[in-house]
């Protein structure tokens, strides 16, 4: 039986390998794995979507879990597009998107969609000009021209005009953009399309557009790293991220011709200038307020109109109410703009319609 | 072995025992017996299992190609060959072309491979031809430690240490290479690169200034990433050069350099070439580090300092947020990347076979 003994090992190994391969191919496996985590927390909610509000959402969900240990909310920040896709395929309990959902996208969800604006934030232009001591001011012509690739030097007269008395360096401007599709790009390019005919007919608005003469980094961290490492660079990142990484931000000319720095007040002002429609979907492409920061957006939670599991529904409603109530208090510290009271009221009304 | 069997063996080899030949040849003896039914079954099962696993792997490759191809079909129909020659990737307007990505992939891979091969081969020669021992032995003799057993083995120990350290480069995650490239490589090469552009800007390779990410930093990091593959396999090939060839070369009065350049390297050429092809494959498919360092700009330029794009980076960047038509276009791009890799491998194998045929007499 010597042969049998020496072949036993490889056979056992092969069989084990085949079984493992079979198991991992089998669809039931991940579901069974999830059951284990569900046993620990009575209710688990699964969500996917935008990276823009992710720090705030994570904060809410961990705080909520501390107060209610039986509720666990998993939020995966895979991007707005991924959020919408998984939401349409019913892979998650809720989605999240900076670009809300288009009517066409909503039509693909048979039980209907409720869009809930949960927080808002600004998109800022961060730059790397080490010799500059005071904040840079950029007129509308200037920042559109820079990202169109028409203004290529920092000492261009268009930029100099808005910064009297400032010596601008004779360096090349290196625009930095997002390489991956993103809600931040959508917000930024929607604003550019709103203020510039040349942009609208050129690159246009979208989650990923064809930027001329730009280098691209992946995600907010990628863009931030490129800006920090490239003298003469300018790029768009979300406000909270720029604050955390201590990057200088440009003051931008708003619709009424004032140069406004992004902060809590200028963001609030921008939100106040827009009336939300019945479906709670409004893009603030160019706020009209005199002191409004020009690039501000709401970001939405995507919920189904009907949920089969009553316990899940109750939990989801409770978590969202927490976010609309106490949760708003975390916004300023993390670089987000708290929702105006009338939007919170509208959200609560829409939330009551979910069953 | 059971005691009974041991007894039988002893019986056979007992001085003056039965003739060994007859016992061994007869099938009915205690030592050679027909396999039992269980052994036959186990053997068959093992053979079937390995065959199934082997075929399953082949099947997997076809499955991947097929499923990518099926999803690429809509864009294959819409864009056809123009997809390969267009230069704009604009999901908003459903205009998809991957020429800049193809050029960028090949340019960065080849550049990285050239740098990686020069260094990798140098390391392989250094580690396989006892260069370390030469210097160390002289030092040890000077210190009077040459006869000490521990110190005498020092060179080979150091060689091992160096080899393992270099092979360790392969264990560093791609993201770390990317970050290292952004924070270390780019700032270091920026001043010389911009000096070259300012003074020799008329040469196409230095045609643009290096602001941040670009082809050169991407290729340098890529070179470091393929270095362990190239140096490890080349070293193995050089170590495997038959000792009789070595002795013959030195016996005929060849100097060390003559022996290395005229005898060892040509003999090991097959293995070295295999290493380079493997490295090329790795460079073509490398995603994360390039997505972070190449600049992701759809630009075609001769300049080493210009930002560029690669197919793998394009896929990684656009896939998560892509809509239907863009997914089809990305699948098409994936198919092109697969085809390029396949062509590289086929050409490599052909050259390898030719090189092997030319060296047949040496073995």
Structural commentary:
The complex is a heterodimer of chains A (355) and B (363). Chain A is α/β, with parallel strands linked by helices and 355 residues long. Chain A has helices spanning 2-25, 28-40, 54-67, 80-88, 103-107, 140-148, 157-162, 183-195, 197-201, 219-229, 239-244, 264-272, 310-324, 331-334, 341-352; strands spanning 43-49, 71-76, 94-97, 113-127, 137-138, 174-178, 215-217, 233-238, 251-253, 259-260, 296-304. In chain A, the strands form 2 sheets. Chain A has an 8-stranded mixed sheet with strand order 2-1-3-11-4-8-6-7. In chain A, strands 5-9-10 form a 3-stranded mixed sheet. The termini of chain A are far apart. Chain B has 363 residues and is mostly helical. Helices cover 73% and strands 1% of the residues of chain B. Chain B has helices spanning 3-13, 20-25, 37-79, 82-85, 99-128, 131-143, 149-152, 154-168, 174-200, 215-239, 243-251, 256-285, 288-293, 311-318, 324-358, and strands at 89-90, 95-96. In chain B, helix 5 (99-128) packs antiparallel against helix 12 (256-285). Chain B is flat and about 95 Å long. The two termini of chain B are 42 Å apart. At the A-B interface, helix 1, helix 4, strand 7 and helix 10 of A face helix 3, strand 1, helix 9 and helix 14 of B.
* Oligomeric nature of the chains: heterodimer
Helix/strand class of chain B:
mainly alpha
- Number of continuous helical runs of chain A: 15
Helix amount of chain A: 40-55%
Strand content of chain B: under 5%
Tally of DSSP helical segments of chain B: 15
- The run of helices and strands of chain B is HHHHEEHHHHHHHHHHH
Distance between the termini of chain A: 68 Å
Structural class of chain A, please?
Answer: alpha/beta
């Amino acid at each position: 039986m010597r042969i049998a003994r020496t072949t036993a090992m490889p056979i056992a190994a092969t069989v084990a390998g085949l079984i493992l391969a079979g198991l991992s191919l089998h669809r039931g496996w991940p579901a069974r794995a999830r059951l284990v985590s569900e046993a620990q927390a009575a209710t688990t909610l699964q969500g996917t979507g935008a990276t823009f509000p992710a720090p705030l959402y994570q904060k809410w969900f961990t705080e909520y879990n501390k107060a209610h240990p039986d509720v666990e909310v998993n939020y995966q920040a895979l991007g707005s597009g991924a959020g919408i896709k998984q939401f349409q395929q019913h892979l998650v309990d809720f989605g999240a998107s900076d670009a809300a959902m288009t009517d066409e996208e909503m039509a693909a969800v048979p039980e209907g969609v409720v869009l809930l604006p949960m927080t808002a934030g600004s998109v800022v232009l961060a730059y790397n000009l080490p010799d500059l001591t005071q904040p840079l001011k950029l007129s509308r012509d200037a920042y559109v021209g820079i990202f169109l690739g028409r203004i290529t030097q920092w000492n261009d007269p268009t930029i100099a005009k808005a910064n009297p008395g400032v010596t601008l360096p004779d360096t090349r401007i290196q625009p930095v953009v997002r390489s991956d599709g993103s809600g931040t790009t959508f917000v930024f390019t929607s604003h550019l399309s709103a203020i510039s005919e040349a942009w609208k007919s050129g690159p246009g608005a979208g989650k990923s557009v064809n930027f001329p003469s730009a280098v691209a980094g992946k995600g907010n961290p990628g863009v931030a790293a490129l800006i920090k490492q490239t003298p003469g660079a300018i790029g768009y990142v979300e406000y909270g991220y720029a604050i955390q990484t201590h990057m200088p931000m440009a003051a931008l000319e708003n619709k009424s011709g004032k140069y406004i720095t992004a902060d809590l007040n200028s963001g609030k002002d921008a939100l106040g200038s827009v009336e939300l429609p019945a479906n709670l979907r409004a893009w603030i492409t160019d706020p009209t307020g005199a002191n409004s920061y020009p690039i501000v957006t709401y970001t939405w939670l995507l919920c189904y109109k009907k949920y089969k599991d009553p316990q899940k529904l109750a939990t989801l409603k409770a978590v969202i109410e927490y976010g609309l109530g106490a949760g708003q208090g975390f916004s300023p510290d993390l670089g987000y703009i708290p929702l105006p009271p009338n939007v919170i009221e509208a959200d609560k009304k829409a939330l009551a319609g979910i069953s | 072995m059971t005691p009974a069997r041991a007894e039988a063996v002893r019986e056979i080899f007992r001085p003056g025992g039965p003739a060994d030949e007859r016992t061994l040849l007869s099938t009915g003896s205690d030592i050679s017996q027909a396999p039992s039914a269980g052994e036959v079954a186990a053997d068959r099962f093992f053979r079937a299992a390995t065959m199934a696993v082997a075929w399953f792997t082949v099947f997997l490759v076809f499955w991947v190609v097929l499923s990518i191809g099926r999803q690429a079909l809509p864009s294959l129909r819409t864009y056809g060959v123009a997809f390969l020659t267009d230069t704009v990737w604009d999901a908003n307007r459903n205009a998809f072309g991957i020429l800049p990505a193809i050029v960028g992939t090949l340019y960065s891979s080849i550049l990285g491979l050239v740098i990686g091969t020069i260094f990798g081969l140098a390391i392989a020669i250094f580690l396989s031809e006892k260069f370390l021992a030469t210097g160390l032995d002289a030092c040890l003799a000077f210190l009077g430690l040459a006869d000490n057993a521990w110190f005498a083995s020092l060179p080979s120990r150091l060689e091992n240490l160096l080899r393992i350290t270099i092979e360790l480069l392969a264990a560093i995650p791609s993201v770390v290479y990317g970050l290292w490239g952004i924070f270390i490589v780019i700032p270091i090469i920026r001043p010389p690169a911009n000096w070259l552009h300012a003074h020799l800007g008329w040469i196409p390779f230095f045609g643009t200034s290096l602001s941040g990410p670009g082809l050169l930093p991407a290729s340098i990091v890529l070179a470091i990433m393929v270095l362990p593959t190239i140096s490890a396999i080349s070293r193995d090939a050089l170590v495997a050069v038959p000792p009789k060839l070595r002795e013959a070369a030195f016996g005929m009065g060849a100097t060390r350099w003559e022996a290395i350049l005229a005898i060892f390297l040509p003999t090991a050429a097959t293995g070295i070439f295999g290493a380079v092809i493997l490295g090329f494959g790795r460079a073509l498919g490398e995603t994360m580090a390039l997505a972070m360092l190449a600049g992701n700009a759809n630009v075609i330029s001769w300049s080493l300092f210009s930002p560029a794009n690669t197919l793998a980076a394009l896929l990684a960047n656009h896939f998560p947020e892509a809509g239907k038509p863009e997914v089809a276009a990305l699948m098409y791009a994936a198919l092109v990347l697969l085809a390029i890799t396949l062509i590289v491998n086929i050409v490599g194998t052909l050259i390898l076979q030719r090189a092997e045929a030319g060296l047949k007499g040496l073995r």
